Amino acid sequence: MIDFRYHLVSIVAIFLALTVGIVLGSTVLEPTFYKSTEELTATLRQNNEKYLAQISDLQAREEGNDALVTAHTEELVRAALAGEHVVLVEAPGAPAALRDPLQQLLADAGAVFTGRISLTDKFTAKDQTGVVDGLATSLTAPGAGFPEGATPYDKAAALLAGAIVTTDPAEAGQPNPAAAGVLEAFEKGDFLIKSGNPAQRATLAIVLAPAQPYEGESAEQETAAIVSVAAGLDAAALGTVLAGDVSASGAGGVIAALHDNGEAASNVSTVDTADLAAGRVVVVYALREQLVGRSGAYGIGPGVAAFEPAPGSGPAGGETPAASPSPGPEPSPAGTRG
Predict the structure, then answer these.
(1) Residue closest to 299 by CA, chosen among 322, 311, 282, 312
(2) Cβ neighbours of residue 253 under 8 Å, at least 6 residues apart?
């Protein structure tokens, strides 16, 4: 049997070992440990200072590029959209700060800005899907219908598009008698807010993506709703551009969702740099390219083909001016609209 003395010796041995370890750690290992920690801290501090300097340089360069493009915007887009009518559709959560710059840019490009439609949070709310579907169905002209499998937002998009855009330049600037009451009905239901005269139909449309990807359990539905709106406008107009910042082309973003939608991706152009002066110029170039039946994904985020459309990709009679050089993926040919 193991007696009490054995246990006592074992306990003493354990405490002795702990004591020796503490002594060794504080006398032999401590200097090495502190030296290693100090070296690591110094390295991290140097790296941090280097990265802060790089960020500062990049910000200064971006501000310089932005200032240069802003100063020369008018000549960069002059006559690029001469005579075209353009409407702006804002997704819920779209940055209001981009309204005036885009409207001024369109004027500089020679376009007529017909007005703006701001979709409300209620339009994409999960508990309003049935209401949107019922409203769209009730506003459909007798004998007309929707493609099989159309979602409530596909239906709503088709109706709204019929009220604000057209593929016939001769009808630009005129209301659609067949869509009388559509905008008023959606506005009365608190699904949208009008500004200007969007009912005076446009030939081209810009859809402004939300400032941040939608979140929550209904995020996918909300995102899909905006993709439906962009696709619906494109189908009823001479072209549509979905514009936003780079977050819109990242995970969960509206632009990323459109890129994943085969048919919409081949028809609707996207620009994920609309928060930059150069990016807003690209929105004009992308609209111009749409007039000849071509589309593309432009910007700096995932899934883009180039920063801007290739020069000369617009209608005959003049090349699209080239924007100031900006960092981005190597250009590749734009797609052809389906």
Answers:
(1) 282
(2) 209, 213, 223, 244, 247
Q: What is the DSSP letter of 47?
A: H
What is the C-alpha to C-alpha distance for residues 142 and 90, in angstroms, rounded to an integer?
A: 29
Q: Are residues 221 and 106 in the same domain?
A: yes
Identify any residues that bridge with 207 across adjacent strands, giving them in sequence order: 89, 242
Question: 328 and 219: one domain?
Answer: yes
Quote the tokens at residue 109. 């490009």
Whether residue 255 contacts residue 279, with contact meaning beta carbons closer than 8 Å, is answered with no
Same domain (yes/no): 134, 270: yes
- Residues 258/275, Cβ–Cβ less than 8 Å: no
Of 56, 77, 98, which residue constitutes the final position of a domain?
77
The domain in which residue 32 lies consists of 1-77
Instruction: Give the number of domains in the chain.
Output: 2
> What are 295's two structure tokens?
């589309």
Give this prediction's pTM.
Answer: 0.80
pLDDT tens for each residue of the chain, 338 residues long: 456 566 665 776 676 667 766 655 666 555 666 677 777 777 888 888 788 777 777 777 777 777 777 777 888 899 999 999 999 999 999 999 999 999 999 999 999 999 999 999 999 999 999 999 999 999 987 777 888 889 999 999 999 999 999 999 999 999 999 898 999 999 999 999 999 999 999 999 999 999 999 999 999 999 999 999 999 999 999 999 999 999 999 999 999 999 998 888 899 999 999 999 999 999 999 999 999 999 999 999 999 999 999 887 777 544 444 443 333 333 334 566 66
> In this structure, what token pair is assigned to residue 246?
């780079």
